[in-house]
Amino acid sequence: MKKKIRIYLADDHQVLIDGMQAVLHTNPNFEVAGFSLNGVNVVEQAAKTKADILVMDINMPEKDGIEVLKDLSGSEFPFKVIILSSYDDLKLIKEVMKLGASGYLTKQCAGENIVEAIQAVENGEEYFCKTVRDKIFSSFTRNNIKPNSETSNFSLTERELEIIKLISLEYSGKEISEELSISTNTVETHRKNLVKKLNVKNSIGLVKFAIKHNLINQ
């Protein structure tokens, strides 16, 4: 029998907790392990219930989601974290992803995307709902593709950084080849090299790399 994904919820609004539980209970592969209405002791309680994933509001009384992530940073996370927020502020998105969150959902899209987000994160992927992806993609500019000291550690060329940006902007191989005046075969070679160098699976992984290394404007 397939092991159920255990989920711990943290939000200061009981109505949202109830709503998420109702959605999650419709999936036979999920089990709600417990919930908290504030940020105090969330880590201890979620770990105690042997949760696989913590779905956590960013704004909570006594201790907010940022503080909880900071408590976790620097050590091996006992579970994966999906952030819930009423805001799609790019600076906030960048901060929580740098602190180790695996996903980010706005509360407006949580009901529709929470199941998909949990499944993706449990499979080792990062997840952003569409409004957040659109916000990230629109922040790319043609002027922020220069290597810095951090990206240099990965031996990335300016051309590879351009490829990262265009892939993350959801350009097709043909569109990238036209944009950069290179062949589609060259684009595919660059893509394969980037996946290998950065150890990512898809365009969302490239977006997270871009967030971590400040390739996205605030």
What is shown here, in short?
It comes from Flavobacterium caeni. With 218 residues, the protein is an alpha/beta fold.
List the SSEs and their pairings:
Elements: E1 5-10, H1 14-24, E2 30-36, H2 42-48, E3 53-57, H3 65-72, E4 80-85, H4 90-98, E5 103-106, H5 107-122, E6 127-128, H6 130-139, H7 149-152, H8 158-168, H9 173-180, H10 184-198, H11 203-212
Parallel strand pairs: 1-2, 1-3, 3-4, 4-5, 5-6
Organism: Flavobacterium caeni
Domain Response regulatory: 6-122
Keywords: DNA-binding, Phosphoprotein, Transcription, Transcription regulation
Any low-confidence stretches, pLDDT <50, length ≥5? none
Task: Decide which structural class fits the backbone.
Answer: alpha/beta
Q: What amount of the residues lies in strands?
A: 5-15%
Cα shape: elongated
The biggest beta sheet reads:
6 strands, parallel
Second-tier CATH architecture of the largest domain: 3-Layer(aba) Sandwich
CATH superfamily of the largest domain: Response regulator
CATH class of the largest domain: Alpha Beta
Instruction: Tell me how many strands there are.
Output: 6
- Share of helix, binned: 40-55%
Structural Rg = 19 Å
Q: From N to C, what is the helix and strand string?
A: EHEHEHEHEHEHHHHHH
Distance between the termini: 46 Å
Average pLDDT rating: 83
Number of helices: 11
Polypeptide structure, described:
The chain has helices spanning 14-24, 42-48, 65-72, 90-98, 107-122, 130-139, 149-152, 158-168, 173-180, 184-198, 203-212, and strands at 5-10, 30-36, 53-57, 80-85, 103-106, 127-128. It is built from 11 helices and 6 strands. The chain has a 6-stranded parallel β-sheet with strand order 2-1-3-4-5-6, sandwiched between helices. With 218 residues, it is an alpha/beta fold. It folds into 2 domains: 5-131, Rossmann fold; 140-212, Winged helix-like DNA-binding domain superfamily/Winged helix DNA-binding domain (Arc Repressor Mutant, subunit A, Orthogonal Bundle), CATH 1.10.10.10. It starts with a strand and ends in a 6-residue tail after the last helix. It is elongated, with a radius of gyration of 19 Å. Helix content is 50%, strand content 14%.
